Amino acid sequence: MTVSSRFAVASHVLAMLSVHTGEALSSEKLACSAGVNPVIVRGISSMLRRAGLVQSRQGVTGLSLARAASEVSLLDVYRAVQPPERLIALHEHPSQECSVGRHIQATLGEVCSEAQAALEARLARTSLAELAEELHKRADQDLQPAS
């Protein structure tokens, strides 16, 4: 079991749009950068469009940001592409005949709820603009001559 990579791909797409402000980028170009199939980018882009994070203009191929990058939190991105269920799903039918089975959901559920809240709080503190700024810093380091 793994957590979906939709959030990572959506963040990548939005970071590309943020870095290339004013340009409409095609799903092919975005997919090439993310290293995924353009069909995946189109599906994620549809979710981002429904959430009001990206837009496309008639007669122009490609996507652009619908809002300023500083106004988009990573929590907005997460909520746009992740189903509303918990990040960590609990099994549905533990045995009620067993003392562990009777109490595992409530006990583990509290821990998982706290973890979910911590994740969402951290994502809420980071804007797309901050993500793009960090990407610029790291890219600039790539260009520094080796000592």
TrEMBL record:
Among PROSITE patterns, the record links this protein to: HTH_RRF2_2
Concerning InterPro entries, the annotation shows: Tscrpt_reg_Rrf2 (IPR000944), WH-like_DNA-bd_sf (IPR036388), WH_DNA-bd_sf (IPR036390)
Q: Give this protein's Gene Ontology molecular function annotations.
A: DNA-binding transcription factor activity
Q: Cellular component per GO?
A: cytosol
* Protein known as: Rrf2 family transcriptional regulator
Q: Which organism is it from?
A: Deinococcus irradiatisoli
